[in-house]
Amino acid sequence: MVVVGALFALAILMELPFVNGPSYWQWPWRTLPFGRALTFFAAPLVLYGYLISRWTRGGEALAPNEARRIVGGLVLCCMLAQIASLYVDERTWTQIERIVKSRAITSYYTDARRIGELGEWLPKFATVRLEHHSATHPPGPVLYYYAWIQLAGRVWAPLMGGATVGVLASFGVAVSYLFAGLWTRSPSARLGTCFLYALMPGLIVFFPELDQVYPIGAMLLIWFWVRSFEERSLAIALGLTLFACSFFAYNFLTVGAAMVLFALATIRLEGWSRDLGRRIATAAAIALAVALACHVVLWLTTSFHAIDSLRDALATQDRFAAKLARPYWSCVFWDLYDFLLANGLLTLPLVTLLLLQRPEPRVRALTAAALLAILVVDFTGLLRCEAARVWLFLQPLILVPAGLALARFAAPERAFILALQALILIALRCKMAFIGG
């Protein structure tokens, strides 16, 4: 574990070939001052170390209230790490505005500025002229920045909207604690996921991209889905979450594979029965009915046609894919590597170690479902290339089992692994240009 992390950090610092991706898709090498990075990351890292010590003192019998306080501290730590990441580059806060306003990097704000009358724009969304990223998404991201323009004006909207993305993304740490509860009820074990999430490189280096927030949507979809087998009312929350997610990114549709696999894992754990089958079918029917009803209401009130929007986005994506010429078999390997790059690569040996230890059946079954869901997305080729950003919503599926493995280490080893995670984050921030140079 230590050797893997140390060698990977060294490979980044030495700019070894292919560490930054294959020849057809690379994150460009660059050099930002490592000393400056350590200076600005000092505050979140000191807080991180303090929270590790509190986690260690609590041991296996850590009280739930203490765990929640540590989670709150990690949410703050994640926010501070994103701010520190800005200051590594001398452009600091101006980066937020530069990225948000860029037509090439996001384009959502650019298209939001073009909206005249919202009542005329939304019904024509499938045919209106949109920039690169907006054209492959539902209207949610554009409307997010349109709302900020209305609230704060065009001068402040880019900064306020971009900063809010980072704040919202940080609360993914708290949601990951909830999500890990599907695997285990142990507060101490669930914190392992939160510590990895708080300094997940992909979450920090892509600030301020809406993709940072999408893991929250994926976690809620799966959590509501599994819990709705026992609490039928949660299927309504699942339907509302599905509607909201499908209004912001079509990537969420691939979470359906994870939901099917988690249902199969539940059947494996509980044993098949007519009652369980009825509960799963009922939860699915309620959730789909609620999501569909929301889209129908939206269509009746605004004339926005979700199906036309999806059809146009898929056609646009096909045209982009043809131009980029992404080779399928290379992407099968390199997309998975890029995905692991975004979490610091330590998750792979951690999850391998967890499975070799033959954990309890529930942990084993849900981990298998989570990993298979990632492989389904990989081998179907639905989301080829730029996986470090585009696949951020899938990160919780590997962070939870990795966090459970981390929690099983003794205190010194656990702290050392997390220190390596921080080192990899800083090395990636200093040596690779993940967003707009």
Task: Please characterize this protein's 3D structure.
- The protein has 21 helices and no strands.
- The protein is mainly α and 437 residues long.
- It has one domain (2-16, 31-431).
- Helix 3 packs antiparallel against helix 8.
- The chain is globular and about 60 Å long.
- The chain starts with a helix and ends in a 6-residue tail after the last helix.
- The relative contact order is 0.15.
Strand content: under 5%
Order of helices and strands: HHHHHHHHHHHHHHHHHHHHH
Distance between the termini: 31 Å
Radius of gyration: 21 Å
Portion in helices: over 70%
Query: What's the rounded overall pLDDT mean?
Result: 92
Number of distinct helices: 21
Concise synopsis of the structure shown:
This protein has 437 residues and is mainly alpha-helical. The protein has helices at 2-13, 34-58, 64-88, 94-101, 108-114, 118-121, 140-170, 172-180, 187-198, 201-205, 214-227, 234-246, 255-270, 274-302, 306-324, 328-342, 347-356, 361-380, 387-390, 396-407, 411-431. The protein has one domain (2-16, 31-431).
Main attributes of the structure:
437 residues; mainly alpha; 21 helices; 71% helix; globular
Task: Give the SSE layout.
Blueprint: H1 2-13, H2 34-58, H3 64-88, H4 94-101, H5 108-114, H6 118-121, H7 140-170, H8 172-180, H9 187-198, H10 201-205, H11 214-227, H12 234-246, H13 255-270, H14 274-302, H15 306-324, H16 328-342, H17 347-356, H18 361-380, H19 387-390, H20 396-407, H21 411-431
Helix pairs in contact: 1-21, 2-3, 2-21, 3-7, 3-8, 3-9, 4-7, 5-7, 8-9, 8-11, 9-20, 11-12, 11-13, 12-14, 13-18, 17-20, 18-20
